[in-house]
Design brief:
Length: 113
C-alpha cells in the first residue's frame, strides 16, 4: 500500500455522494474454485482495511462456453471515494491470473427519492 492510501481508517478521501462500485468480469469455470478463494481473500482484506465497507460477490446463474460472469459490489457509508476505489482496483490485481479479459468497473449513485 502506498503512502497515499496508508490512512484508510480516516474518511478515506473526499466525499463520494454514496457512490457504489459494480465490477464484473469473466472466469473460466475450470478456475472457479481457485478464483473463488482469491475473491474471498480480497474482500476480507478490503473489509479489514476500510471499516464499514460492504462487499458482495455474485455470479450469473448460467455458464457460456466454459466461462462464468462474476460481479463484485462495493458500498460504504458516505460512498466509495476515489481513494477507496483506487485501493480496491490495486488489490484486485491479485485476481489477474483468473480473469479472462478486463474487469469492467461501473459507478452508480442512488436516485433521488
Amino acid at each position: 500500500m502506498t503512502s497515499s492510501t496508508s490512512q484508510p481508517a480516516g474518511g478515506g478521501g473526499a466525499p463520494a455522494e454514496e457512490r457504489w462500485l459494480f465490477i464484473y468480469y469473466r472466469v473460466a469455470s475450470a478456475d472457479a474454485v481457485a478464483a473463488a478463494a482469491a475473491v474471498r481473500q480480497l474482500q476480507s482484506r478490503l473489509r479489514q482495511t476500510w471499516p464499514g465497507l460492504q462487499a458482495q460477490w455474485l455470479r450469473r446463474p448460467e455458464e457460456k462456453d466454459g466461462m462464468q460472469t462474476w460481479m463484485e459490489i462495493y458500498a460504504r457509508p458516505g460512498g466509495i471515494t476515489a481513494e477507496v476505489q483506487a485501493h480496491i482496483e490495486d488489490e484486485a490485481r491479485a485476481l489477474a491470473p483468473w480473469c479472462r479479459g478486463p474487469r469492467h468497473v461501473e459507478v452508480f449513485v442512488p436516485c433521488a427519492s
